[in-house]
Amino acid sequence: xxxxxxxxxxxxxxxxxxxxxxxxxxxxxxxxxxxxxxxxxxxxxxxxxxxxxxxxxxxxxxxxxxxxxxxxxxxxxxxxxxxxxxxxxxxxxxxxxxxxxxxxxxxxxxxxxxxxxxxxxxxxxxxxxxxxxxxxxxxxxxxxxxxxxxxxxxxxxxxxxxxxxxxxxxxxxxxxxxxxxxxxxxxxxxxxxxxxxxxxxxxxxxxxxxxxxxxxxxxxxxxxxxxxxxxxxxxxxxxxxxxxxxxxxxxxxxxxxxxxxxxxxxxxxxxxxxxxxxxxxxxxxxxxxxxxxxxxxxxxxxxxxxxxxxxxxxxxxxxxxxxxxxxxxxxxxxxxxxxxxxxxxxxxxxxxxxxxxxxxx
Length: 361
Description:
By secondary structure, this protein is mainly alpha-helical.
């Protein structure tokens, strides 16, 4: 079943496990190597040699993982994990010998990186003759997919399907410096709001005054708005939870007047949602984006195609007004300060003023 051999002063073990060749360094004496071989053969017989005691098909495991994710994570998170698994399944079409969880090795993961980085790539990263051109995935996307696979196979370890995560030791791709996010100038904000129809003015004004994410605004209810304390609570609800946890956003003077007016004129029979961007409890997915593009065109504002730009506008103007980055991080709900650092270049005068406050020199 296995053999031992000597190379230089060191003895090695050579054994096959489930059709896979495993070679390991043992020690400097033949006696130790013989004992290691016998121990390995016993473990192979008991299916304990670092591999699954049962060869679990990847197809079944991935479905079980998605069921687990559905019960554990937010729906949008499960959707992202499902997309990563779909890409991995597509890659495995070119790897016919990789069928079970224990078949996935670090080499397979590295080949997946090449596959995702190559246009029309196959498992080896070689260009195919396909007529359709597929854009290579960005380094940031590939790194996210590697992190997702690490999470997936950690669950396989927990369930006893494998002993070691195949993503262990995988080197992530270098991410190029991201471009500064687009944000509206003060003049563009005024033009945009002036062009808003009356039924949407409050929606986009709130985006600009709070920096909320689109889903956060769409799921905002009057129970989340405390007009006395002047606070908006971003908090989880049945069927939805915030991307990075709960937080509170102060209400500005202008937004307070607007919300008081909306609250005063609302009909008691109306929905509990603050803004009418929900229908039968389901979000109108592209409604706000489509309207944003239309309004931007009417206002003569170029390169405004994403609702998220209004969130960037909120953060950018705070930084330019001298608000420190940790405070902006809290208001935006960023889980990592590195995300907020994309706005740091907007505060050169503020940063210079900070170092000049040093009490020595």
